[in-house]
Design a protein that fits this description.
Function: Converts N-acetylmannosamine-6-phosphate (ManNAc-6-P) to N-acetylglucosamine-6-phosphate (GlcNAc-6-P).
Pathway: Amino-sugar metabolism; N-acetylneuraminate degradation; D-fructose 6-phosphate from N-acetylneuraminate: step 3/5
CATH class: Alpha Beta
Order of helices and strands: HEHEHEHEHEHEHEHEHH
Radius of gyration: 17 Å
Structural class: alpha/beta
Strand content: 5-15%
CATH architecture: Alpha-Beta Barrel
Mean pLDDT: 97
Shape: globular
Catalytic activity: an N-acyl-D-glucosamine 6-phosphate = an N-acyl-D-mannosamine 6-phosphate
CATH superfamily: Aldolase class I
Helix content: 40-55%
CATH topology: TIM Barrel
Strand order of the largest sheet: 1-2-3-4-5-6-7-8
Enzyme class: isomerase
GO molecular function: N-acylglucosamine-6-phosphate 2-epimerase activity
Low-confidence stretches: none
Bound molecules: N-acetylmannosamine-6-phosphate
Largest sheet: 8 strands, parallel, barrel
């Protein structure tokens, strides 16, 4: 059975929740051993895969979980808005650290390394490629180039104003076009995650609402503040 067939069977059996364990940078929680503990807790709670940023964190998580890890490296580069796994060396390092799936920025913006070169390198490591996209056009292009998973990860993040709702319409159109869609980005409640599946997503990745304590506290504070003012 291929890797994706096995993962498919698991998704069917226990639902397609992927947990992204990416603490807010510089948070007291932003430490490999704490990220590994979060990842293990998510695995024990039924997550079918984990999304982990940074080579050291991938290594720490790989040591304690058995589910697939979607590995990424985020970089702030001077001449490009592309942040997620921009370099071929990043692919190599993530593969070596134990990632089973490598996600990269699949947007059509100025980039240091072409999408087909990243895909070829991921293939060389015999790993699964996930393209983090922001539009239907980008998702289809990456799908045609051979990315097995298409994420809606970057929808809403390529322009100045970030919406509050997730992009369910993009999930539908990618799924109708035959992509294996990972709904990702602002699925901040179980109800929204369920809607992603209803719109044709294969799996849903949830980050902030599960693993970013500071964001969750802020949501509660915003809701509470001013109620009795
Ligand atoms: C845009 C971007 O860089 N997204 C990142 C990709 O890895 C993460 O910061 C998100 O937390 C992740 O996609 C999960 O999304 P949410 O935290 O909304 O559940």
């Amino acid at each position: 059975m291929s890797f994706l067939d096995a993962l498919d069977a698991k998704v069917k059996a226990q639902g397609g929740l992927i947990v992204s364990c990416q603490p807010v940078p510089q948070s007291p929680l932003d430490k490999p051993d704490i990220i590994a503990a979060m990842a293990l807790a998510a695995e024990q709670a039924g997550a079918v895969a984990l999304r982990i940023e940074g080579v050291e964190n991938v290594r720490a998580v790989r040591a304690v979980v058995t589910v697939p890890i979607i590995g990424i490296v985020k970089r702030d580069l001077p001449d490009t808005p592309v942040r997620i796994t921009p370099w071929l060396d990043d692919v190599d390092a993530l593969a070596q650290a134990g990632a089973s799936i490598i996600a990269f920025d699949g947007t059509q913006r100025p980039r240091p390394v072409a999408v087909d070169a990243l895909l070829a390198r991921i293939r060389q490591h015999q790993l699964i490629a996930m393209a983090d996209c922001s539009t239907l056009q980008e998702g289809l292009a990456c799908h045609q180039q051979g990315a097995q998973l298409i994420g809606t990860t970057l929808s809403g993040y390529t322009s100045a104003v970030i919406p509050t709702e997730p992009d369910l319409a993009l999930v539908s159109s990618l799924s109708n076009a035959g992509c294996r869609v990972v709904a990702e980005g602002r699925y901040n409640s179980p109800e929204l995650a369920a809607q992603a599946i209803q719109h044709g997503a294969w799996t849903v990745t949830v980050g902030s609402a599960i693993t970013r304590l500071e964001h969750i506290c802020q949501w509660y504070r915003d809701a509470i503040q001013g109620v009795n003012a």
